[in-house]
Amino acid sequence: MLKLPGLIDPHVHLREPGATHKEDFDSGTSAALAGGFTIVLAMPNTKPPIFDASTLKLALDAAKQKARCDYGQYIGAGPENAKSAASLSGTVAGLKMYLDSTFGELRLDDMSLWMPHFEKYPRSQPIVAHSESRTMAAVILFAAMYDRPIHIAHVSLKEEILLIKAAKERGIKVTCEVCPHHLFMVSQVSSEERGKRKEGRREVRPRLATQQDVDALWDNLDVIDCFATDHAPHTLAEKDSDNPPPGFPGLETALPLLLTAVDDGRLTMNDIITKMHSNPRKIFNLPEQPETWVEVDESTTYEIKASEQFTRCGWTPFEDWKVKGKVRKVILRGKTAFEDGKILVEAGYGRNVRGS
Ligand code: NCD
Ligand code: ZN
User: In a mutational test of the pocket of ligand 1, which residue from 45, 156, 239 has the highest number of ligand atoms less than 8 Å from its CB?
Assistant: First the structure.
């Protein structure tokens, strides 16, 4: 039996408020525990989006009643909320800036709207940016100009990981995360077709990339600070519709997929511990969880089945994939929270990592 620290996922979409038919704090944090995560940081692109005190209260009230693992809630950067977002920083996980095409209404296209956020948001938390390709270069320039930490969400391209590497070498305060689906899946659409053709269930932002991009991520593991799931549940009916929303569930598949890569000799157990516990804890300034660990049976081989998952969305892009390594037990703050497929803590057991 392998013992891991409680894993931290700095990037999940729990869909509350507004789309609880896809997920809510109860189902999403149950999925987290089943996947070996004891802290999840929830994104603000809900309905309504979380961008001020009253919308933040909607999310935090729901989380307080329903969450089964510990959590933090991001606030979204809007065109006019730089001051209030900064004043709420003590109660949120961090500030999320949507700078590229995504699901929801929080996108900030005009770079002059980024400036007040970079000026005002406290440096004790990173600004997390959804910024792809050249937009990512722009946001790294902002980090350099304002000399403050930024965290690049879901890096997927060779040009991105190489630029982050170069920026780190020059002392710019940039960290980044990569999602399992960008490490294990390749686009089936040619580079020219990508973005023009609908990819059905495989729609995700950032899009699945080329083999060359995937190889560059694996070749630069030391540049990757965190593995994050970007757990973005949409129902199967929505994914199979004419206009499929982008996003994959990922909380229950990340650890088994990554443990399988350890078994294959592509990753080390130390990579898992640093990128799924120590680094996210440091980057996001998260509290220690006493008496918290995850027990994993390293030798169990099985196939991933959506029907066995806690996420409400009812599907996984990894259906039938063979993996090695199963979460047996999760102890969270002294209590057995998950054991052999069952959630054993009540809704409301989870605590806000920002302490309210
Ligand atoms: C996310 C979602 O559905 O909320 N979708 C996705 O494809 N990753 C939005 C996002 O993270 O940009
Ligand atoms: Zn996301």
Answer: 45
